[in-house]
Amino acid sequence: MEQRANIKLCFKLGKTAAETVKLMRQVYGDNCLSRAQIIRWFARFKSGVETIEDEARPGRPFSVRNEGLIAKVRKPIQEERCVTLRMMADEFVVNRETIRQILVEDLGKRMVASRFVPHALSDDQRHEHVQYTEDIIKTARRNKKLLNSIVAEVETWCFRNDPTTKRQSVEWKSPASPKGKTFVFKSQN
Hints:
Number of domains: 3
Order of helices and strands: HHHHHHEEHHEEEE
Oligomer: single chain
Helix content: 40-55%
Shape: rod-shaped
Structural class: mainly alpha
Strand order of the largest sheet: 1-4
Largest sheet: 2 strands, antiparallel
Low-confidence stretches: 185-189
């Protein structure tokens, strides 16, 4: 700041940029601003700028991570756990990293994908399986040579197309939340 004030003084006294560089080097020696910086400041004062403060420069954005934003982020997570970082970043006009930090560090959330379970039987299918098993047990009790007469049968399984991918099933959950399950249903032909 002191050197900038002295550059401004030299400008006001009518010195040239080259004379100002020479005088600054005499006064400050090795601690002097570079020639380019002195000329840049001299040109600024010549263009009519009066302040010796730096202009605001783009750089690391100021932190918007505050209690108000944390409360705003908490609401969509409670309503819909599958909301993405990008969706929230667009909604609140902040970057995704800020949203991620709020979710992980402030709210204690983590991304969890549902665990795929091979299949789940409907109530009707369970009832049918119980009936088949009971029939086999009754037949085996009546006919002691049943096991010798069994012929293995080939079964074909068709999987129902479930458009939900593992990535689409990802939810934001707290450590205490129950684990999710996604069932892949099978039908028997």
